[in-house]
Design goal:
6-stranded mixed beta sheet; 9 strands; alpha/beta; 3-stranded mixed beta sheet; 26% strand
Length: 249
């Protein structure tokens, strides 16, 4: 690989972070760490004046993680339970352990409700104390594109097939909860090689990401006979989380 291409690959990997399992071994779905972290921040918001610091996700126990049942995306982690590590700053008017417990519950709830991540551990640390004069700030993710459901092409008629990368892309776009297709890893958002289809997409807030990915896999399997296996990578979650978010404090 030429040096400039290698540099682009490394830069992209740093931008999106780890490629995390979404669901279990049979779900054939993954999500970028960047997408998961942004979605968690947006879903939880900044309760009680808390400011988020770094938020990272990784495998909780890499040694015991099972193998995926379908081919994984490049550099993807195996489908084991995850660990969330996050820093925060808060006002000193409440005990920090109580604030951390509030945030821990909110993160676990959002990870399950909004994304479908399997999380077994949440490690939080207080990085700083806020003072009364500090300006309020929230780290919500702004919606990219329209806030409503995007227009999608009509679904294939019953009994018809849509084989090949273009047909697979059309089928994936038509699944409810898909905002758009996003070629994050590679130049094409939908690929088909040696009987394996790989689809990269952004989901809509309010549609549980793992369920959207499952629906895309089922739709592609039904419409494309040459796709013997299908995997999905969620590269972002767009839209307004406020309708489904539960207040955390």
């Amino acid at each position: 690989m030429p040096a400039y291409q290698l540099a682009q690959v490394v830069s992209e990997q740093l931008r999106i972070g780890r490629v995390l399992p979404l669901g279990g071994p049979s779900d054939g779905s993954w999500i970028t760490e960047r997408a998961a972290a942004d979605a968690l921040r947006a879903a939880v918001g900044s309760p009680a004046g808390v400011r988020w610091g770094t938020l990272r996700l990784s495998l909780a126990d890499p040694e015991s993680a099972p193998r995926p049942e379908v081919p994984a995306p490049p550099s993807a982690l195996p489908p084991g339970p995850l660990r969330i590590e996050a820093g925060f700053a808060a006002y000193a008017d409440r005990p920090l352990p109580a604030v951390a417990e509030l945030l821990r519950g909110a993160l676990l709830d959002a990870a399950e409700r909004e994304l479908g991540l399997v999380v077994s551990a949440v490690d939080l640390r207080a990085d700083d104390l806020l003072e009364a004069g500090d300006a309020e700030r929230t780290d919500r993710v702004t919606a990219a594109g329209t806030s409503g459901t995007p227009t999608t092409p009509p679904k294939a008629r019953e009994g018809a097939t849509q084989d090949g990368p273009e047909g697979i892309a059309a089928v994936a776009r038509a699944v409810p909860g898909v905002a758009r297709l996003t070629p994050t890893l590679g130049a094409r958002p939908a690929r088909l090689a040696e009987g394996h289809a790989f689809v990269q997409l952004t989901t809509l807030a309010g549609h549980r990401a793992v369920e959207v990915a499952r629906a895309v896999r089922a739709a592609v399997t039904a419409a494309a006979p040459s796709a013997l296996t299908v995997s999905v990578l969620v590269t972002g979650v767009e839209g307004d989380f406020s309708r489904s978010a539960r207040p955390a404090g």
